Amino acid sequence: MEEKHEMKSARRKRKSKPQTLSYDNGSLHLHPQLRHVDADTIFALLLAAISNSHRPDSLSLIEKCLIKLPHSLLSTKPNHILSLLPFLLSSKRAFITSRGAEIVGMASLFSLEMNERIAFDADIVKGLVSALASSKRSVLMAACNAVLDMSTTSVARERLLASSALESLMFGFLQVPKSPVMQVSLCTVVDGNATCLKIGFEEEELPILLLTASVILINSCNTEQLEKIPTNLSETFLVLLKKLWAKVHNQMLLPNTMRSIQEAHIYVSNIRTDNIAESIFRLSINSSQATAALPFEVVKRSIFGLGSSSFEDFMLNHWEVSPFRISRAVDVRDDVFSSFLQSLHSTETVPSFLSLILQNTVSCFPISSDELGILSFLEEVRNKLGCPIIYQQDIRVLRTESQLKREVHFFKESLNSCYKNGSHLFNIDDVLKCEEAYQEGYTVALRGMEFRFESIAAIANGVASIFGQPSVGVNMYLTPPNSQGLARHFDDHCVFVCQLFGTKKWTVFSQPNAQLPRLYDSLDRLPGAEAEVSVAECREILLKEGDILYIPRGFPHEACTDNGGSNGSAGFSLHLTLGIEVEPPFE
Asked: Which CATH superfamily does the domain covering 321-361+397-580 fall into?
C-alpha cells in the first residue's frame, strides 16, 4: 500500500509541477525548482550525470538526484535501477556509495525476485563487498545494512559467502572501535508466534551491525565454507564471541533481569542468544583449540593397567560376562583423569566445585551415535543451543529412601513440569539449591560431561577408540556421606565407574535374564531391577579413589556412601561413569 501511495503522489506532482531541464555546452543545469521534479525526470538526470561522470560537476548532480530518487522506481524501472548499482557502489564519493548500498538494501526487501536478481549479479555483490572494506563510517554502515537486508534469503547468503563478505564483516568488526567492556542485556521480544531472547547492547550501532551480519553468515556456512575462513581471523573472532557469551550466559541465569526494548540507552540487536551459541559451535568445529586426542595406549594403560595382557584378559573373561574391579596404582603421569581433577580445585572435605560447574554449563542435547554429520545435528537443535541446563535432560538431583527403596527428587515441581509443561530451565537460584540438596543427602547427577570438559572429551574419545564405538557418554555423580543416589537399576549399555574422590560401596547383582538388553530397546518386557534377587547372587565391591568398576549391561546394581572417618575417606563420593553403547548387530 505504501508503494502505491508513493506512485500516486508522484503522479500528482507531475501534473501540477512541470519541470525544465537544459543542456548547455555539455553540462547539465537544473531548474531552481529541482525539489518538484517527477521520478522520470530525476532518473533521466541521474542517467545523464552518470554518463558524464568524468565532468567535475556531475558527481554533485548525481548526489542531488540520489537524494530525490523515489522508491517507486524499484517497481516501475527495476532493470534500470539495478543497472546503476555497480557504478554507485564503486564510486569514490562516500555519499554515492552509501546511497548505492541503501538502494541494494531496499531492493533486496522489495521482493524475493529482486533479492535473487541482486544476489546473482556478480558486479553488484562485488561492489557491496568492496564497500565493506571502506574506511568511511557512513559507507561501512550502509553496506552492512545492505548485507543484512540481502541475507533475508538463503540464495543471497550463499552468494555473499562465495564473495568473501563474511571475512570482510569479521575483519571490520575486529577493527572498528568498540567499548573495552561491551555491556549486554537480554530483552524479551515477540518474534512471530514465539517469544525469544534478543541481546541488547549498551554500544553504538556500527559494531553491533557488523557482529549481527557476521553471525548470520557464520550460521549459514557449511563445513567447507567454515574451513575457508582464515585461521587467525576465525580464532580471534571466536575468542571475542566466547567473551560475549560469558556475559550473555550470566544474564540468562539471573531471574527477572530482562530489560525493556524501550530503554533508550540499549540498542536491541536482532541477535538471539542461540545465534551466538551456534556461531561458537560452528567456529569451534575446525578450531586449533579443539580437544587434543589422548594417545590410544595412554588411555588403555591408565584404565586397564601396565600389563600387556591386561586388556586382552579383560575382553576374554569379563566383557559382557561379569563385573570386574580394576585397582589402579598408576603413576600420576599415566592418570588420564588428573587434568580434570586439577580443574575442580576441590578440597578433601567440601565439594566446592559444584556451583561453579553448574553456573558455567549449558544444556547438552542428546546426539545419536549414528548421526551422519555434526551440522545435521545442529539443524535439529539450533533454536535451543546455549540454553541453561534442563532438569531430567542434563541434571537430576535425587536420593533413594532406604526403607522404600525408591527415588525421591529434590526438585519435585521441576520433575512434574518436565512431564506436563515441557522443560524446566535452571537459573541461579536452582543452582544454589543444589548445594542445599547436597547437604540434605541428595546426589547431583550431571549428564554429558564429555561435552563440558575438554579433558573428559579426550578420555571419552580414547575409550571409544579402544572399543571401536563412535562415541562414549560420560556422567558425573556427586553423592554426600551416608547416602544412596539412584535406586537399584540396570543399564542397556556397559559402564565403567571411575572413582575420583572418596569411596563408594557397590552391590552388583547377577543378571536376571539370559538375554542382554538391546540398546534403546524397551526395558518393560525384561525383568525389572526391583525383582527379588538372591543375596548370594550379588557381589559387594568397595571402590576407593583411583579404582574402576566395570558393570556389563543388564546387571542390576546400586551404590551408597558411608559417613567417612572410619576408613579415612572424606565421606562424600565423586565418580564418573563412562557409558559404552554396544550397537545391535545387523539383522
From this structure: Cupin (2.60.120.650)
